[in-house]
Write a structure and sequence with these properties.
The chain is an alpha/beta fold. It contains 25 helices and 21 strands. The longest helix is centred in the N-terminal third of the chain and has 50 residues.
Length: 711
């Protein structure tokens, strides 16, 4: 048994050997097989380097495909064997223990690029051959004229020995002579051929100008023409040719005969059609791919004013879970079954289904009444997914979310239509999935705005577009200013001032909330230190800063807080960190550990929006909090007199519970004096709201604190 090659160069040569053995039998070359193998080694090396390159370069695969043609491997079987060899052995011998799935994906893309390069080189070779045919036509015309006048024997040698089909006809179109190559192309006898007339050789695929050129030639207005033309063979099959027809004149210059030269391009055309199909169809499902879909969509959108279109954009719900749990092979079989079901849903004229990639499919319908048809199409798709799919003995329930876009042709481009469908699909998925939604221009605009804000967030922090407003916290007992809550704002260049509810969720989603939260904490602590310096005799002003759930899990939370307090010279007792109740529901010890460390340092922890998280009140004993911030929903009934008795009982119970646990109570959303007074009577400690002041610049808090101090 032969030992496996040791080094990369040995494996590369082994791959070249396998490749040469596969392709050499169908190659038209004068080289020996070892010589041919030596010629393939540089091409194998280019494929190996392209396979392992950092980024995929289709040009490398295209260059190798073109080089195959240059090596006289022009037979379609040579390409087929080459692609089979690359698919089977390139990753095995040249992958060098890289990630196999990624390498096989890269190998598949290289094969497509090689096929494209092969087709392009073959086309260029064809054009060169066509020019040679044209020159041969000119030479043959001269040779035939001389032979007719000088030597019948010489003409016969050229006529019969030619590798391309040659026929001579009179100006009425009667076939006078045909050589052996032409008879073999058509599969008939010379007697049968001579009984044919040129005008009978029409074909449905003839270009409109073919017969106009023919009439000009037999009338003497044209000397020659060259076209691609199809003929019917006697058995009914199609023969595709590169056809050159020239006019032969007599010694006096009068038109006398027509000479036709034909090259059989049927196999080449079939190869091109195969390559075109592979380039425009999904290899897994056989459905049209993104390229072909965009061609059809662009054509549909450029149709007349009376045409409309409807588009269903489908994404399978939970497909990643299937891939992760059952493997990609099971996921692929699921996609094939889904594709078959979708194909059965779009069988009417003007309807098509395509796979865009992954688990994303699109269905397109065209016509004058697509408002109704696209709804019916979406319904058929949803019904087709109801029946579970059996994979490896498992019954898998398939769900999908569909975004529908419908409208008149000519108003939007393909990219805009697909973007709207994509946004709508995600809206359906966000609503729970297994449903379809219709596109809404306003919802699209909001989604586009959210996307724009998301992409602008990092640069906004660097450019200093964020600022902080402060809302006073007031002692209910005496009305003095106790401190303030820091509320971040975004001064957007286009949208103006944005509140936290418009960008904080985006910052949490992108991870920017950590550096943004650190900046807010640093600015707020610095401002609190300034307040204390200006009001040294009036008691310390505290600062409340909100923490998002993402910040709670960040490992640098405690150290960042310590560093900021020390750098700014603020005592830990002057800082309160607010955490929403929902963020601490079911929190384990690991999540609570940083909060406990901060509380041990003297930082107050406030449970924000208390009462909205449906938490177990008994859990309050294990949470390192010192303040409850009562949600405004519990106190709205106290804004008028008399207060809602149910709200009074609830708030009274919460205050009693909090005080029994040594927790202070802060109330949000205080808007009237009656509300403030009732909360004071109930024993609440501090409050904030528009009744006292709206969020504003730090100078406003300075003025309020100054009034309290001079009282």
């Amino acid at each position: 048994m032969t030992a496996e090659p040791d080094g990369p160069e040995d494996r590369l040569r082994r791959f070249a050997t396998i490749w040469s053995r596969a392709v050499f039998p169908v190659t038209s070359t004068s080289l020996t097989r070892p010589e041919f193998e030596h010629q393939l080694i540089p091409l194998a090396r280019r494929l190996s380097e392209a396979l392992r390159a950092r980024t995929f370069q289709a040009a490398e695969g295209q260059a190798v495909g073109a080089a195959i043609v240059s090596a006289h491997c022009t037979d379609p079987e040579a390409l087929s064997r080459t692609l089979d060899c690359v698919d089977a052995y390139l990753v095995l011998y040249c992958g060098e223990d890289g990630p196999q799935e990624a390498l096989r994906t890269r190998s598949a893309r290289l094969q497509h690029a090689m096929a494209a390069g092969f087709a392009q080189a073959l086309r260029e070779r064809t054009l060169s051959e066509q020019e040679a045919i044209y020159q041969a036509a000119l030479n043959a015309r001269s040779t035939v004229a001389e032979a007719l006048h000088a030597s019948e024997a010489r003409f016969r040698a050229v006529f019969e020995g030619a590798a391309i089909g040659i026929a001579i006809a009179d100006l009425e179109g009667n076939i006078l002579q045909a050589n052996g190559a032409l008879l073999r192309m058509f599969g008939g006898s010379e007697q049968t051929m001579r009984g044919r007339r040129v005008p009978e050789w029409t074909h449905p695929d003839d270009a409109p100008q073919v017969w106009k050129l023919y009439e000009e030639l037999v009338s003497g207005e044209r000397e020659h023409y060259h076209v691609e033309k199809a003929f019917y063979r006697p058995d009914g099959t199609a023969l595709w040719t590169n056809l050159t027809v020239s006019l032969l004149r007599d010694a006096d210059g009068e038109p006398q005969y027509q000479l036709a030269l034909m090259e059989d391009t049927t196999e080449r055309r079939l190869l091109n059609l195969r390559l075109r199909y592979e380039a425009t169809h999904d290899a897994l499902t056989g459905l049209p791919n993104r390229t072909l879909f965009f061609e059809r969509l662009e054509k549909a959108l450029s149709a007349g004013d009376d045409q409309r279109f409807g588009l269903c954009y489908l994404d399978l719900d939970g497909f990643k879970t299937i891939n992760d749990s059952l493997g990609h092979a099971a996921g692929d079989r699921l996609l094939v079954e889904v594709a078959d079901r979708l194909q059965s849903c779009a069988t009417a004229p003007g309807e098509m289904v395509a796979r865009l990639g992954g688990d994303e499919f699109v269905a397109l319908t065209i016509g004058p009444d697509t408002e109704r048809e696209v709804d019916e199409l979406a319904g058929r798709i949803m019904n087709a997914l109801v029946t579970p799919i059996s994979i490896d003995g498992r019954e898998l329930a398939v769900r999908g979310s569909i975004g529908i876009v419908e409208g008149p042709a000519g108003e939007r481009g393909p990219a805009e239509v697909l973007r709207s469908a994509d946004i709508t699909m995600y809206r359906a998925k966000s609503a729970g999935g297994n449903r379809f939604e219709l596109a809404d221009p306003e919802a699209d605009a909001r989604a586009i705005t959210r996307h724009g804000l998301t992409t602008a967030l990092p640069a906004a922090l660097d450019r200093g577009e964020f600022f902080i407003e402060y809302q006073p916290l007031v002692h209910l007992a005496d009305g003095s200013v106790h401190g303030a809550e820091a509320l971040v704002r975004w001064l957007h260049p286009q949208h103006g001032v944005l509140g936290p509810d418009q960008f904080i969720p985006l910052a949490e989603h992108t991870g920017l909330i950590v550096p943004l939260g650190r900046w807010v904490l640093e600015q707020s602590v610095r401002q609190a230190r300034r307040w204390q310096a200006r009001h040294a005799g009036a008691g310390p002003l505290r600062i409340n800063v909100n923490l998002s759930p993402c910040q709670l899990t960040h490992p640098g939370l405690v150290q960042d807080t310590v560093d900021i307090l020390e750098r700014e010279g603020l005592d830990a007792g002057a800082l309160c960190l607010e955490v929403t109740e929902s963020a601490l529901i079911g929190a384990d010890d690991d999540l609570l550990k940083p909060l406990r460390r901060l509380a041990e340092m003297g930082v107050d922890i406030a449970l924000d929006d208390f009462g909205t998280g449906y938490s177990n009140l008994a859990n309050l004993r294990r949470l390192p909090v010192s303040i409850l911030k009562l949600d405004r929903s519990f106190t709205q009934g106290m804004q008028q007199f008399p207060a809602d008795p149910v709200d009074l009982k609830i708030v009274e119970g919460i205050v009693s519970l909090a005080h029994s646990l040594d927790l202070a109570v802060t109330v949000e959303g205080v808007e009237t004096g009656a509300q403030a007074e009732q909360l004071r009577i109930l024993g609440c400690d501090t409050a904030q709201g528009w009744y006292y002041a709206r969020p504003g610049p730090p100078e406003r808090l300075h003025d309020l604190a100054l009034v309290d101090a001079t009282g």
